[in-house]
Specification:
By secondary structure, the protein is an alpha+beta fold. It has 2 domains: 156 residues, Jelly Rolls (Sandwich); 107 residues, Homeodomain-like (Arc Repressor Mutant, subunit A, Orthogonal Bundle), CATH 1.10.10.60. Helix content is 47%, strand content 22%. It is built from 11 helices and 11 strands. The chain has a 7-stranded antiparallel β-sheet with strand order 1-2-9-4-7-10-11. Strand 5 and strand 6 form a beta hairpin. The longest helix is centred in the last third of the chain and has 19 residues.
């Protein structure tokens, strides 16, 4: 179900304002050659869908979502009949700068390392709506801001999909890597899982995903590290590194800085 919000002088003056939200929305096909005039976050809770963005195709499954920035042409449709989404639409005078600071200012598909986060905020918005209707714009604005801050450390970019055979292979591997990111992973182990040679496996994965298997695994590990650094301030950085599959503290710090642009300590302090 979609809950729209109508603009008022107050909502338009807020730095971040809610435009709509959707709860367990069974998604029909959508094609928007001119985009929409506000930001939209989508999160898949069931089924599988397809996003077309910048002439690229993304498969959207549970624990994945996508961000659409204002006026970006896009389309999306269900691949399975049960494709169900939570939706969050917002705008405001500070949205562009805020999302740029939070490193999520570009339209695209994303993976979520905390699958409960989006659901929690949608449920909070629904509770506010059922209590106050559309009247309390300031409380909705606060929740929007909190939502964006929270998910900023729980997302990593997804790659475009390719052909059907490659999709099945990469889906198997990406699912395995998501579940075993904290453990040592070797190419030989992955090759045995899909019954392919390591060289052929690497070539197919890179062709489909645009990066190597180990680069993809690093993205997953860093995404979880960002989330855990914020979630567990009591834990030492080296502990967080080990929880995410980095045995060497110095290597963890080096890779984290390369991927995020700052050290784990600085990232935690900034949050």
């Amino acid at each position: 179900m979609i809950y729209p919000f109508h603009s008022t002088d107050l909502t338009e003056s807020l730095p971040v304002g809610l435009r709509l939200f959707g709860v367990s929305h069974l998604q029909p096909p959508v094609k928007r050659p001119d985009g929409v005039p506000y930001f939209q976050w989508f999160y898949c809770i069931k089924g599988q869908g397809e996003l077309i963005l910048n002439r690229q195709r993304f498969l959207i499954r549970p624990e994945q979502g996508f961000l659409i920035c204002p006026n970006d042409p896009h389309s999306y449709q269900a691949v399975t009949a049960d494709w169900t989404l939570h939706i969050f639409g917002f705008d405001g005078s500070l949205c562009g700068e805020l999302l740029k600071t939070l490193q999520m200012h570009a339209s695209g598909a994303y993976r979520f390392t905390d699958e409960d986060l989006f659901v929690h905020h949608i449920e909070t918005l629904a509770s506010l709506y059922h209590t106050h209707g559309c009247r309390n714009a300031v409380d909705f604005s606060k929740e929007c801001y909190s939502f964006l801050l929270d998910i900023s450390h729980s997302i990593t970019r997804s790659r475009a999909a390719g052909n059907a055979v490659g999709n099945e292979l990469t889906a198997t591997l990406t699912s395995y890597l998501e579940r075993h990111f904290a453990s040592p992973v070797t190419l030989e182990e992955l090759a045995r899982i899909v019954n392919l040679s390591p060289d052929y496996l690497c070539a197919q994965f890179t062709q489909e995903m645009g990066l190597t298997i180990m680069q993809y695994l690093t993205e997953i590990r860093i995404g979880h590290a960002r989330h855990l650094l914020t979630l567990h301030p009591e834990k030492k950085v080296l502990e967080i590194g080990k929880m995410c599959g980095f045995e060497s503290p110095s290597y963890f710090g080096k890779i984290f800085k390369k991927e995020v642009g700052m050290t784990p300590e600085r990232y935690r302090k900034n949050r």
